[in-house]
Amino acid sequence: DAGVTQSPTHLIKTRGQQVTLRCSPKSGHDTVSWYQQALGQGPQFIFQYYEEEERQRGNFPDRFSGHQFPNYSSELNVNALLLGDSALYLCASSLIGGGAKETQYFGPGTRLLVL
Amino acid sequence: QKEVEQNSGPLSVPEGAIASLNCTYSDRGSQSFFWYRQYSGKSPELIMSIYSNGDKEDGRFTAQLNKASQYVSLLIRDSQPSDSATYLCAVRQNDYKLSFGAGTTVTVRA
Predict the structure, then answer these.
(1) pLDDT band of B14, cuts 50, 70, 90
(2) Which residues of B touch A109 (CB under 8 A)?
(3) With an 8 Å Cβ cutoff, are A106 and B103 in contact?
């Protein structure tokens, strides 16, 4: 049973650049959520995608955008990178229809460093 | 007021003891509650979910939920060095996102 996969594992960028992070959900899952985790903090919700649409968005600027493909995989794009964007970016997948019991499983994350 | 608050820790317990982790949440309409374990440098791993008041046991882990007090806890019995990690409490309200606490770091000393 393939779990959630993310690429790349590590990334170094400079301020002002753009970055694309990728996620493939767990086998059988159809929903992808993205979180940002700064050092020493809990993950913060960026957005969630289902049926190729953004279903909910957290308090992140428009520099953060995403996409979901027909095969349920997803991309997170960040434009005009700031030093404060340095963090662990986590993708979580789930299966719609679970209601309150919908459970999110996390991938290994992409560690982004902005210099 | 933060949506989800946890003991700031760190929490140090001797091997074989019980580790007790606490979490409070602000939205009375919250429906789903999760505990994730996160080893240093790794991603969160689900260890427990709980949806109704009372206790839920899974091996050495017991989650307790009290919706009236807006409180959820995790007990780790017979703590082992491999339990040393940061434990994240996550809450889902009446929407799709998970709201996380800052985590409690547990160290089990041999």
Answers:
(1) very high
(2) 42-43
(3) no
